[in-house]
Amino acid sequence: MENVMKVDTIGQYNALNNNETLHPLVNIVDLSKADKRPNRRSNYGFYAVFLKEIKCGDLHYGCNYYDYEEGTLVFVGPGQVIGVENNGELYQPKGQALVFHADLLRGTSLGRHITDYNFFSYEVHEALHLSESERKIIFDCYDKIRNELERGIDKHSKTLIVSNIELLLNYCVRFYDRQFITRENVNKGILQKFEELLNDYFTSGKPKDLGLPSVTYCADQLNLSANYFGDLIKKETGKSAQEYIQLKTMDVAKEKIFDTSKSVSEIAYELGFKYPQHFTRSFKQHTGFTPNDYRMLN
C-alpha cells in the first residue's frame, strides 16, 4: 500500500491544484486548474467541502469507493484520509472545493460550534445530493466567499468569510434534513435493520462478551458512520440512537425479570451490564421500580 500524502496547510493545497493563495487559512479552489495526476490517498489538516460538477470516481474513503454524481457535496474534516490507491492511471480533477483551516475559526461562533456539524465525519457514501435549487444556493455561498477573498484582507475579512462559511454549513444542515425525508423509505429500512440487529444481539451471547450494544457497534454493523446513523435515527424516531438502545435494553430486561429462576445479577450480566448495581439503577430510572420490586408487581 502506498504512503498517504499529507497536506497540512491551505497554501500547500492551493499549490497542489495550481490555485493562487489569497488568504493563508481559506480558499475556494478550482480543481479544474490542477494538472492531471495519479490517484492517491491524502490526509488533510483542514476542513474541506467538495462540490463535484461531473460524475467522476476519484474518491475512496474508509472501506468504500464512491462515484460522485453531479451536484454532490462531500465533507472532510481534519485528519481524515480520502482518495484511492494509485492504479497507474491519470485523471483530471473537476469541481470546486471550499477549504478552511481550524485556525480561521478561532474566537468565532462557528469555531465554538464546528463540531455540531456532524457531516464532517460522515462517510463518503453518505454524501449530500443537491437539487438544482440547492446547488444554486451553494454556488452563491461559494461566490460570496470567493469575492471576499479577491477584495484582499482587511479588518472585516475574517468576520465576513467565517459568516458565509457558517451560512453555507447551515444550509447544508437544512439540505441534509430534506435528504433524510426524501429517502424516508431507505431510512425506514435501516430502522428495521437496527431493530433486528438489537433483537439478534440480545438473543445471542454477545452481551456477556461485548457488553451493552453501543452506537458505534450498531453503525458499523449497518455500514454507516456513527454520526450519520445517529442523525438518521434522531430524524426517524425523535430519540437519539443511544436513547433507542437504552429503551430496547429495558424492554428486554422487563421480559427477563419475569424469569424468576434467574437472579437479578444473572439478568444484568446477560444484558451486558458489568455491574448488577448499574443495571438496578438504570432499571429504576426507566421504570420507577427496582428489578425486585417490578417482579413483585406481576
TrEMBL record:
Organism: Mucilaginibacter gracilis
Domain HTH araC/xylS-type: 192-297
A Pfam family that the UniProt record links to this protein: HTH_18
UniProt xrefs under InterPro entries: Homeodomain-like_sf, HTH_AraC, Tscrpt_reg_AraC-type_HTH
Swiss-Prot/TrEMBL keywords: DNA-binding, Transcription, Transcription regulation
PROSITE patterns referenced in this protein's UniProt entry, alphabetically: HTH_ARAC_FAMILY_2
Keyword Transcription regulation: yes
The keyword Ligase belongs to this UniProt entry's keyword annotation: no
UniProt protein name: AraC family transcriptional regulator
